[in-house]
Structures are given as C-alpha cells and as structure tokens.
Design a protein that fits this description.
Blueprint (H helix, E strand, L loop, with lengths): L2 E4 L2 E5 L4 H10 L9 H12 L4 E7 L2 E9 L14 E7 L8 H14 L4 E7 L5 H9 L3 E9 L2 E2 L12 E8 L3
Parallel strand pairs: 5-6
Antiparallel strand pairs: 1-2, 2-3, 3-4, 4-5, 6-9, 7-8, 7-9
Helix pairs in contact: 1-2
Length: 177
C-alpha cells in the first residue's frame, strides 16, 4: 500500500469504490475508447491477489488518472523476466499537461525500483501517442530494439496488420536505486 499527496493531487492504491468512478469518468470523454467496467473490476481483483499495483490519481476526491505496475510483463519481449512493467496508463484529457502523468510515473518507478533496477512499458506508435512518446523519452525511456508488436506478437517484415492501439513498441528505463 502507498499514499502520496502534493498540491491537491493524491496518488494511492486502488479501492473498490474507484471502479465505477473510473468507468464513468473515462466513459464520459467524447471520442475516448470506452473500456468495459470489467476492465476496472479486473484491475482491482488482480491488485487484491498481488498480480498488479493499480495507482489512482485523484483531485478533490475524484479520479483524474490511473496506471498499473505488473511485477513481470504478461506479453512482449520481456515476458517471463522479472522486470516490472508499467501498463494501462491514462489521464483524463481535461487534466493532461498538468504534471499528473509525470507524478504517476514517479510513483510507479519508485515502486518498480523496490524489486528491480529496470522498468519497461509499451507505447502506441501512431500520432495520438506522440505526447506519451515524448514524455517517456524525456524521462529516460529508450526503445528496447525489438521493433513493433501487435497483440503481443512481434511484427516481422512482411506482416500485414491494422494500425490501432494494439500496435506498440516497448521501451525500458534504467532506474536509480
């Protein structure tokens, strides 16, 4: 369990009461991919059995963002290695560019550093992920060199795929311990 508070922003582990709040807040965004409520229920369930740490960012008691840390990647080039992976990172659009995502990453990296000197994540490769790509680069994440991945499988020369949120590249960061 953890708790962090600064200038009206609170970061903490997920509670069951967050499930509906997260679902409603993110579903209310026009044009945003709507995740089924079962996704948030799964986050909470997996956290309660130690399969993930779900970090909730809130302002004035309302969720404004979330992300998770997995103890080991479930897919991709580092699957099966004991390197923590940051996944499911989202900040409500109206709260972006306020340093909230940066603080979420601060907490996740601190938690990851408790078990490993590296952390990994994946990021989408098309234009709407540009802000995230730049933020990760500023924080010291570098591409891991394995190229593109699509639904957990490496994209090889000649593969035909659809460019959507599942088309990602993996990045890693050396943590200061």
């Amino acid at each position: 369990m953890f708790y962090y508070e600064e200038e009206g922003l609170c970061l903490r582990d997920m509670k069951s009461s967050d499930i509906n709040k997260l679902f409603e807040a993110f579903a209310a965004q026009d044009g945003m991919y709507r995740r089924p409520i079962t996704v948030f229920e799964g986050f909470f369930q997996e956290q309660s059995v130690g399969k993930r740490i779900a970090v909730i960012a809130e302002k004035d008691g309302e969720p404004v963002g979330y992300a998770s840390l997995l103890p080991t990647p479930w897919e991709g080039p580092l699957m099966g290695h004991d390197i923590p992976e940051i996944v499911d990172f989202n900040v409500l659009r109206k709260f972006q560019r306020q340093g909230i995502g940066w603080k979420i990453l601060d907490v996740l990296e601190e938690l990851a550093a408790r078990t490993n000197s590296r952390v990994t994540l994946s990021v989408g490769v098309y234009e709407s992920f540009g802000t995230a790509q730049r933020m990760y680069a500023k924080r010291g994440y570098i591409p891991d060199g394995t190229g593109l991945w699509y639904y957990g499988k490496q994209v090889l020369l000649g593969n035909k795929i659809v460019c959507n949120d599942a088309l990602v590249t993996f990045m890693t960061k050396q943590l200061k311990i």
